[in-house]
Amino acid sequence: MLRQTPRRMSSPATAAGPVVAPLSRDSELAAEVKALVLAGKRDAARERFGELVALLQRRAARIAYQYLRDLHDADEAVQDAFVKVFTHITTYREELPFEVWFTRILVNRCLDLQKARSRRLRWSVPAPAIGQAPPLEPAAPQQTPEERLLSSEQGQRILAAVDQLPERQRLVFTLCQISEQSTNEVSQTLGVSEATVRVHLFRAVRKLRGLLAAER
Amino acid sequence: MHRSHLSDDRLVDVCLDKAGYPAERNHLDTCPECAERSAHLSRMLADIAAVTVAEADAAFSVDRLAKQRARILQRLEQEGRAGRVITFPGNLTQRPSLRARPGMRWVAGAAAAGLLIGVFAGHLAHVVVPNQWSGSPTQVTIQPAGTTLHAVSTTLSEEEFLGMLEVAIEGTSGASLRPLDDLTPLAWEVAAQ
What we know:
The structure holds two protein chains of two kinds.
Chain A: H1 25-38, H2 42-68, H3 71-87, H4 98-123, H5 145-151, H6 153-163, H7 167-178, H8 183-190, H9 194-214
Chain B: H1 8-16, H2 22-30, H3 32-59, H4 62-79, H5 103-132, H6 158-170, H7 178-183, H8 187-192
Helix pairs in contact in B: 1-3, 2-3
């Protein structure tokens, strides 16, 4: 199963008053971690934070990898984002979705790493491996479904088309279509208007459509 | 009866916004051709999502994610600890003082005098030697007009240093160097050749 399950839980309507959407699991955990840190129970907070990491880690890795296109940079970005979240957890506001806050920190870290990388590429000779496809795990005798999909002709064409998207469009497309965030959540994450997100998304889809249709 | 189909751009809008565009959705319900185009676009988006997610998942295996999680928790554990302070320079109290050993004063004085003589001799050598080479036709002195050099701390990190280089080149003061920069091949381009 490649796609994630929806993050927002549907809330049952009650006769008592306005329906308040319950917190998602990640927001609940973040609130617990914050309370533990404020109570001075750092060991317990770290333990709970481990659960939060396990919950969001896969999604974070997908976003960082799509944005940075480098395994080691993506790994570093995800680690740094989680560490930063824990060290600043007391500033987290529980009324906001934790995922939006976290994604914003992750995207900012990705941007920093990308800037640092472009500076390095300008002034230094890259290692031969840079610029090539990232190394996958040692080849198993049986290919996983993901590997089969990637090695297919259609998979290669799609990856090549996504690589041709401008940076901003790729980020918006990744957050909306791959990470399944709404345009409203993406606008909060990136600090731009929802209309801007829609424009980037529209252009990304139109460009992908053109690229994939042209290659047929 | 003429029946207009949805434009490609409108079709993308409808596919991306699951809740909006009621009129266009009604059209899709009654127009098989547009419905087929819409289904094709939705399939394309689903395929792209599946392939890009598979790419990231293949790169981040379960083992790698487990190691990453362990590393994050390890970093968090170290986060709360106070740094270990190392005394520098060593145990000062056990070092023999000059007062305790008067003979050492002469040694220290001789070393200081030797150092001064060395500096003076070096200075003299710099003054005398260039006069012998003053007629050399290959000697070129570059004195950029209007340029002030600032002392730079030697404790800059690589990132800071590269950042300062970027700023210097992007700034207006570096505009005259831009043509030279354009002519100069980048290190990675040379390596590629």
